[in-house]
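Hey, I was hoping to borrow your eyes for a little while. I've been staring at a protein lately and its backbone has me curious. You're getting the sequence in one-letter code plus the fold written as tokens. Would you mind checking whether the tokens look sensible for this chain? Here's the protein in full, and shout if anything looks odd to you:
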Amino acid sequence: MGAARTLGIGALVLALVTGCQGATSKTSTDKPTPTPSGTTSQPAKAAEVQWQIPNRLVAKPMELSGYADHVSVRSGEAFRLFATSMGHPFTVRAFRIGWYGGAGAKLIWTSPELKGTKQPQPILTKERMVTAINWSPTTTVQTKGWPAGSYLLLLRASTGRENYVPIVIRSDSARGAVLIVSGVNTDEAYNGWGGYNLYGGPAKHSHDQRSLMVTFDRPYAHNPARGVLHDNLPLVQLAERSGVPLAYATSVDLQADPGLLAGARAVVFGGHDEYWSLPMRAAVTKARDAGTNLAFLGANSVYRRIRYAADPHGPNRIIVDYKDAGLDPIHNAPDTTVNWRQNPFPDPENSLVGMLYECFPATGTFTVRDPNFFLFAGTGAKAGSAYPGLVGNEADRAYPIKGTPANLQVVAHSPTTCDKRHTFSDSTYYTVKSGAGVFATGSIEWVRALQGPDPKYGVVPVSVAFAQKVTLNLFTALAAGPMGQTHPAVGNLASVRDLATTTTGTGGPIGNAPGPSGD
């Protein structure tokens, strides 16, 4: 409901502040994307390791930046690039992120030199949405022969300044594969390019001046690829290293092309996938109930309920999120833009994820409760084994409330500090009648730890080794078919010490208005 609404663009021009960040539908015919051949033995070429931008070379917002008119396309489909430059010519190189012997990305395509054009200042609408819909297209990019996957377009000006434009080449089908979903909704929600996002405006502590809508028709602020690099890259690298059949899509595609999930072995969500529409959740729930495994390798998943709107570039280009039923003109409907647990029509995330969002900022030591859990095999973990730093910076927790799966198995119960307050973060597993299994790590830091130690959160080598082994075990299990057929969940929530009530977390209370019940 609401996906086809088109919003008019206002005419108020916004001066950028200093220091700012649709899919087609056709019959699926392709096969899952295998791990790229030769990635474990061939050394990376020099061009393939020059895909990371040093901080000193990141261009300023209007110096060099751009966006694509689709968040994803299928291989062979074209997309338009809209870029602004201070008059300096530039080139575009498309890097596909992946394992590639540890290089992290592979160069797939290079553009000819493009003329630099200074685009108009973006528009600020009455909903405080910053949009560059008034820009002219710079070039059309053809993707024939590009393998499905997550890409970074690296824009490099003749001055040496650089910037990224993320895009996904989505798979025609996820049948027989493990589908990795790029959380572009959440990336856009936090995108502050132009001074506004869904959390605030240009002034500090300006929550009341936040955007009520955000659009994909603008570049990303510094760092332009933060979501890709932190919440997706480590996961994709490890998944491709595992050798299981993979497919790729974005959160937008879950609504635009729900048939994409048909026959998928599993759907995997990365480190931060907070913003979900009603059709997105319905598609993933339907897939689970048909036997597709799910894995939530972050925290704070399925927390914000959004809907999409169209703009002149097509459907699903605008994310609508008033975060307040009183502000939302659609104030009493299943797709009213509030948190999923709030009125009207509350449907907390625990019925899908298994847990509720608990708190931010979280820091803690991942503490094993059930060492016999099948995904912990080969780690050497024992009851009470502790892995520093794996809990952060947001965390989830299991609650014995309506909607929580009756057979929820708490496999880790980790002491956690949230803003000087003691709580716990859990890692859980449950299974459903279809045989599908659902695993959730309960921590955003999990994916980030896959790429190595993180001093900021105290992630040490032993924690990295544990997270990598568990995640490799997970991909093998996901690809083998419904995990519940061989590993049915053993419910143990009632025996967990320090069980929480819904007043203990900072994720907010559960609404009580009539609405859909938990699964």
Observations:
- The chain is about 15% helix and 30% strand.
